[in-house]
Amino acid sequence: MLWFFNWLSGYRKNVISFTLNHRYDQLDEYGTAVEQELTARGYDAVYEGDRYFLIDGRSYLLQGYTLPMGGVPMQRTVLKPM
Fold it and tell me: Which of 11, 18, 47, 82 could form a disulfide with 35 if both were Cys (CB 3.0 to 4.6 A apart)?
């Protein structure tokens, strides 16, 4: 069970994962917020739309998960390489 939770949370090789401070329902707002967070972390990131990002010259697909943490839903951002 713990392995599945870690896998779902994005703890895998070549995957970028983090949690934003706010929860987003609209994909465009979510993509823009992810792009800003990646830029703040030092990545060269561009949101191309429809869940696709170009990060440091590689294509990534955005997957967002809502996980319960202490009874509070948390939106986890996972970017998988294409």
Answer: 47
For range 45-69, the mean pLDDT: 92
Q: What would the mean pLDDT of 47-51 be, rounded to a whole number?
A: 97
Please, how many CA atoms are within 13 Å of residue 82, restricted to the half-sphere of its CB? 12
pTM: 0.82
Give me the amino acid identity at 63. Q
Q: In 3-state terms, what secondary structure has residue 71?
A: coil
Strands (E), the chain: 16-19, 45-49, 52-55, 58-69, 72-81
Query: Which CATH architecture best describes the domain 2-81?
Result: 2-Layer Sandwich (3.30)
